[in-house]
Amino acid sequence: MKSLLPWTPRAGEGFPVSLNRFEQSVFDYLQAHPEELRHWENKVSGRAARGVLPASTLADELSEYVRERGTHVQPFRDWAERGGVPRSSLLNLAEYLLRCWGPAVPKRRAGAA
């Protein structure tokens, strides 16, 4: 796997992350469909702020989303015909979305114990 999402340390934007082909396709689909992207951003930010959305749960919800959309759109339709997306395949994407849209986690100070 290689880093597929933009990360610019100087600007502090994005996070270095490696996504598999399934994750990258879901991310690309969301980027190409702003209404879908807004839905997921609102879902993730709201539930993560309340502390009720672990990455594994979000990965399961993304898998369910792919299964549901598989009856309507590509590339999800092809995946459904081949047996779907492996359960663990969307975990990196889930973690990335939580890092992007979830609450900011304060950094620990080097001297603090």
How would you briefly describe this protein structure?
The protein is mainly α and 113 residues long. It contains five helices and no strands. The protein is 53% helix and 0% strand.
Protein described:
The protein has one domain. It is 53% helix and 0% strand. Helix 3 packs across helix 5. The longest helix has 16 residues. The chain is elongated, with a radius of gyration of 15 Å.
What labels describe this entry?
single chain; mainly alpha; 0% strand; 113 residues
Low-confidence stretches: 1-12
Give the N-to-C terminal Cα separation: 35 Å
- As for the number of domains, it is 1
Main sheet characteristics: none
Order of helices and strands: HHHHH
Number of strand elements: 0
Strand proportion, as a percent range, falls in: under 5%
Helix content: 40-55%
Q: What overall geometry do the principal axes of the alpha carbons give?
A: elongated
CA-atom Rg in angstroms: 15 Å
